[in-house]
Amino acid sequence: MTGAFMSQLLPLAPPAASPPSFAGAFQADLDTLLTWRRDVRRFRTDPVPEPLVEALLARAHLAPSVGNSQPWRFVRVRSPERIEAVAADFAACNARAQNAQPPERQAAYAALKVEGLREAPVQMAVFCDDTTAQGHGLGQATMPETRAYSVVLAIHTLWLAARAQGLGVGWVSILSPEVVTRSLEVPAGWRFIAWLCIGWPEQALGIPELETAGWQDRAERPVVVER
Question: Which CATH code fits 38-209?
Answer without folding.
Answer: 3.40.109.10
